[in-house]
Amino acid sequence: MSQPDRDAGQFAYEGLDRVIHERARLGVLTSLVAHPKGLAFGDLRRMCQLTDGNLSRHLQVLTEAGLVEASKSFEQNRPQTFCRITPEGRARYLDYLSVLEQVVRDAAAAVKADPAAPGLAGLAPA
Predict the structure, then answer these.
(1) What are the C-alpha distances in Å from 69 to residues 5, 13, 39, 56?
(2) Helical axes 41-48 vs 52-64, angle rounded to 10°
(3) What domains lie within the chain, and their CATH numbers?
């Protein structure tokens, strides 16, 4: 039998930051963490397989949250947007990953405790 007070909030995963958790924004941040010097808008768009408009909107959300900085310049008379993760963005991203790692540990523990439980079969180690 579980102990309600001890188990309270065990699976709340408060650190799953909603700004980061959206699939496209997670992809953008992961790309920028992998390229700490930053990426040109077009390269980021290709890596994340997003449209110009979709990437622009996600960058706006990430910029407003202080996770990403975008700078605009001209190269060969063409506008260029360059994106870089901020120190705060990197810290929040790493905190987010720590929470995801806890989710994986909790799921693995559930499978280990009862590998035949419904819904857990796909998580069982091969």
Answers:
(1) 42, 27, 11, 12
(2) 110
(3) 17-113 (1.10.10.10)
Alpha-carbon span 126 to 115, nearest angstrom: 11
Structure-block tokens of residue 14: 């408060």
4-28 mean pLDDT: 86
Tell me the C-alpha distance between 68 and 61, whole Å: 9
Per residue in 69-83, pLDDT (tens digit) is: 999 998 888 889 999
Q: Tell me the three state secondary structure of residue 91.
A: helix
CA dihedral 101, 103, 106, 112 (to 10 degrees): -80
The answer to whether residue 13 scores a pLDDT higher than 60 is yes
Is 61 in contact with 17 (CB distance < 8 Å)? Answer: no
CA distance from start to end of the chain: 29
